Amino acid sequence: MTRAVLSIGSNLGDRFAYLQSVVDGLRPFLVAVSPVYETAAWGVEDQPDFLNAVVVVAADDVDEWGWLRRGQALENAAGRVREKRWGPRTLDVDVVTVDGVTSEHPELLLPHPGAHERATVLIPWLDVEPDAVLPGHGPVAALKFSSEGVRRREDLVLSGGVNS
Ligand SMILES: Nc1ncnc2c1ncn2[C@@H]1O[C@H](COP(=O)(O)OP(=O)(O)OP(=O)(O)O)[C@@H](O)[C@H]1O
Ligand SMILES: Nc1nc2c(c(=O)[nH]1)N=C(CO)CN2
Question: What class of enzyme is it (predicted)?
Answer without folding.
Answer: transferase
